[in-house]
Amino acid sequence: MQVRRVGPVVPVVRVSPGGTYDALGTAFAISRNRYATAAHVVQRRDEGLCVAFSADDPNDGYQDTTNTGRHLLEAKLVEVDPVRDIAILEVAGIDYDIRYSIGSSDDVLPGTPIYTVGYPHADYGRLVLTQQSSTVGARILIGSGPIKTKHLVLNIQTRPGQSGSPVFARNNGAEIISAMVIGSYAPNTPRMIIGTIDPDTLHQTTHAISAEYIRRMMA
Predict the structure, then answer these.
(1) DSSP string covering 117-182, please?
(2) What Pfam families is this protein classified in (predicted)?
(3) Which residue from 51, 43, 44 is spatially nearest to 15, judged by alpha carbons?
(4) How many domains, the chain?
């Protein structure tokens, strides 16, 4: 089997029986052949699930949107935490050397600079890896029955394709993934969808689940 060196942040896609694919969101490497993403991205099923990467290297740092060729590697769903919206994927035929650590929301205080890396327009088929900078707005606990989980509130608006994106912080020059993007806060009330847009999510308060729960699933 050929071993490919795939990037640390990739789009997650689902291939149809006819061979076409729909991009679902973002995933990031947590070990040499495993990636983490949001469980709602993969809908807790791995039929036709793949990670994609460009057929060509970027041209002088530019991503060529006219080059739509993608290599696809099959991804298997190996573990899901439905309460915290985390899914772990195993991808055969890759070998990625991680140069960051998996931390926790405990590592960052409100006001800490962070950045996310993901595919904001993946749901429209535009696979452009995009970095966005922001700050931590708050650290919160969210309850699900008796379980409370740690989240960061990021001062940035995100799109559906960014679900599963890593949230990076820097500590003494080292890169740490402190959280994973889950999505924009939306009230639990009846809402109107205009086209594909939920107006209630058009604000700069994005939720991200603490990466410590991903770290626990790596054991």
Answers:
(1) EE-TTGGGT----EEEEEEEEEEEEEEETTEEEEEEEESS---GGGTT-EEEEEETTEEEEEEEEE
(2) Trypsin_2
(3) 51
(4) 2
Residues 121 and 107 sit within 8 Å (Cβ to Cβ): no
DSSP 3: P
| pLDDT for 125 beyond 60 | yes
Given the structure tokens 């291939």, which residue do they identify? 15
Position 1 scores a pLDDT of 40
Helix, strand, coil % in the chain, rounded to nearest 5:
10, 45, 40
Distance, in Å, from the CA atom of 146 to the CA atom of 27, rounded to the nearest integer, reads: 29
Question: Would you call 212 helix, strand, or coil by DSSP?
Answer: helix
Q: In sequence order, what are the beta bridge partners of 1? A: none
Cα–Cα distance measured from residue 42 to residue 205, given in angstroms and rounded to the nearest whole number: 23
pTM of model > 0.90? no
8 Å CB contact between 153 and 136: yes
**Residue 96 falls inside a structural domain:** no
User: How do 34-38 and 113-118 pair as beta strands?
Assistant: unpaired
